Amino acid sequence: MSILTIILNILLPPLAVFMKHGLGSTFIISLILTIIGWIPGVIHAFIVND
């Protein structure tokens, strides 16, 4: 995992997921989790972008 990915996982979790997986169900889940709460979005981004 690069430094850029780690920074994006923390600051903009949906963008980090989009860069790795594109538009799809993973991106939508990340977007919803980030809207509900920032921390769940960050956790999901780190798990998905492992």
Name the overall outline: globular
Low-pLDDT regions: none
Share in helix:
over 70%
Q: How widely separated are the two ends?
A: 7 Å
How many strands appear in the DSSP assignment?
Answer: 0
Number of domains: 1
Q: Tell me what portion of residues adopts beta-strand conformation.
A: under 5%
Radius of gyration: 9 Å
InterPro entries: PMP3
Main location: membrane
Protein name: YqaE/Pmp3 family membrane protein
Family: Belongs to the UPF0057 (PMP3) family.
Would you mind describing this structure in some detail?
With 50 residues, this protein is mainly alpha-helical. The protein has one domain. It is 82% helix and 0% strand. The protein contains four helices and no strands. It has helices at residues 3-11, 13-21, 25-36, 38-48. The chain is globular, with a radius of gyration of 9 Å. The mean pLDDT is 94.
Features:
single chain; 50 residues; mainly alpha; YqaE/Pmp3 family membrane protein; transmembrane
Short description:
It is globular, with a radius of gyration of 9 Å. Helix 2 runs parallel beside helix 4 (38-48).
